[in-house]
Fold these 2 entries.
Entry 1:
Amino acid sequence: MLPLLSLSLDELTAWVQTQDQPAYRGKQLHQWLYQKGARSLLDITVFPKAWREKLADYPIGRSTIADCRIAPDETRKYLLTLADGLIIETVGIPTEKRLTVCVSSQVGCPMACDFCATGKGGYTRNLAPHEIVDQVLTVQQDFGRRVSHVVYMGMGEPLLNLKAVVRSLQQLNQDVGIGGRSLTVSTVGVPRRIKELAEHHLQITFAVSLHAADQTLREQLIPTAKNYPIPKLLEDCRYYVKTTKRRLTFEYILLAGVNDRPEQAQALAKQLKGFQAHVNLIPYNPITDADYRRPQIKQIKQFSDILHKHHIENSIRYSRGLEANAACGQLRTQQAATNPAVQTPDPLPSLRKINQPS
Ligand code: SAH
């Protein structure tokens, strides 16, 4: 039995009819699920009471909030419990004009990037489309304002779960109503999957985590890069740009003394010459099991300036939510997040913690 949050308007309309209800109830159900955030059919007060009560336990596909931490910059990190009891992390990042949700696409991640907390905790399973859509609805409800942007930069490697990710993108666009360009998928690169994503012709924003212009160094940082040499990765990126007619973003984490030297900026500029791309420089956010350091601001600016000099458009992106361990790379797996034996203490006493009933 598919949870209702997996279904489109047409599918919901067909479903209500199997329940001997008139077709227009499908539209009502769609609105209550995707706009009003109903958590149970009991919530849908426009439905006949007897029918609601009969279907009170019918699976809708919503998670429950196990925990929420609010950083001083108002970023909120949620631990969400899925139907099978597993826990994922989702982040809500507010600014005056935007509310961005950073969604997970897997429980854990098998890519094991050396600088990323999620990779250190291993992999459990892929998320279903409704479990991705639910994260957006949950943050929307908790903040009490509309989500404007979604980035697939939480736990997991989206291209290892391509089918569900594409379906969730379509749902966020068509059912929840978020503009295609406000949806960003980020990947560290999985052979053949970039081309496969391109074939869907989605008008989304696509980001590739490059992190090094040199193959040997890239393999040290990203073990799975062994199967995907940089020239092949860039060839597939060019195919993506040509096929979708969308510009691409490259992400480059800055690790002091590892990939932040001027000659490495020059090598990156050379690799990306002539590419229709923007580079996001992400200063490293500290995690417990890695020895990397964030470069000094001077080094960061110098790296950015060298790229500019070579006409490579770029910006420095400081992550939000650092104090709630909610920043890029700081999301851990279920075990690490919930097992007190390995949980790290709150880094700041000012951190607010709220426990919410679902
Ligand atoms: N698996 C996907 C999406 C998740 S990570 C990917 O790798 O792209 C989203 C971004 O955060 C990636 O660019 C990732 O490399 C970066 N990141 C991971 N760990 C980080 C850390 N400790 N500090 C800063 N950025 C980090």
Entry 2:
Amino acid sequence: MSKIAVIGTGYVGLTTGACFAHLGHDVVCADIDVGKIRSLQTGDVPIHEAGLEELVREGLESGRLSFVVDSADAVCGADFVYLCVPTPQSDGGSVDLKHLKAAAAEISAHIRHGAIVVNKSTVPVGSTLLVEEAMDRPDIAVVSNPEFLREGTAISDFLNPDRVVIGADEPTVADRVADLHSSIAAPVMITDPASAETAKYAANAFLATKLSFVNTIAAVCEAVGADVDDVLTAMGYDQRIGGEFLVPGPGWGGSCLPKDTRAIISMADDAGYDFSLMRGVLKANDEQFKRVVDKVESVVSLSGATVALFGLAFKAGTDDTRNSPALEIAGLLLDQGAKVRAHDPAVAAVGIDEITVLDDPYAAADGADVLVVVTEWDEFRLLDLDKIAEAMVSHHVVDARNIMDREALLSRGFTYQGVGRN
Ligand code: UGA
């Protein structure tokens, strides 16, 4: 078993650390956020991620997982150092690498000879080299090992991945990183660093393309009178297409797909290639947010209307509202003079004064003209529709996730609009 340091305890770093400890390795996680480290030291996990708190507590109890503020303390005895720091989007869509460079420079003097630095942050092609330069330690190998973790299922994605991709210049170095995953049954692909870095962006760009395609097919279904569920089920049976990631919605969001699609466009631009297909994918997504608002506007005049927004997280199973379709749609509604009352089972606040967040769905529906379902929480399927009807002043539902019981709503006098349904 190996000694592993993880720098950065966001959902990628924390999942990586907790899972490696679960697999039997000795893991020290570091983060500059003192409050977060203090919480983690007591087993409190600040993010909503299924199974993560249990794994963190298991790691703490076994003594195989610990948390420190100082990255030098974390890396000094480590065989492997995982860089899991944020790589936010900068102006123009490119990736801001300041955290990565700072982390690399900070740990450089403290890493022991022969250790391997593993870059897990999502970073543009060439960043493996950039970390090597920032560390200025020719005796330390740097490899790329992109993460393919979905929020909400990050633990199972780590422990049962579709593949592990390791980009390294030296096969022996790649083999050592591959060995860390020896108890995981998944194909391990060893590539050069540039291919591993590109594979990460290409995968997210393809997923975003698939979703924009699905959402535009839903629009076609509405236009021609077809049913999107039947159309997509028929498509999904084709093994070349596959049935996953084929659910239409309010548009896609989150901390990854929007950032990574913009980054791959920016990377391609810098390399002299106009990735116009990807620009179309982003445009289709913006149009999808707008289509939800158009549906609201088809039943009420937006100025002065009250909209109950059900869902703030970018998808069910997480409390993450970064680039959430709900906030995009709320922004468009507010711009046109609507009032927004919102409820999400996992989100208590969004830091936007104009959005009133209520912890009770019936309170959020109180006085509303239109109810818009944006996040696919199971809780919304189980709502007492009579209570919702009582709370609202007009009875309109825009179901941007196709999860509500249409017949039950219609029978109570609601109008109903789903996505790609007639
Ligand atoms: C995404 C990728 O799916 C992961 O493979 C990747 O590792 C991760 O980004 C990352 O780069 O770290 P995540 O951001 O958790 O994972 O979100 P997804 O599950 O991909 O969902 C993205 C958006 O698409 C959400 O708004 C979701 O509601 C929407 N979606 C997803 C649909 O509208 N329909 C679907 O069928 C699937």
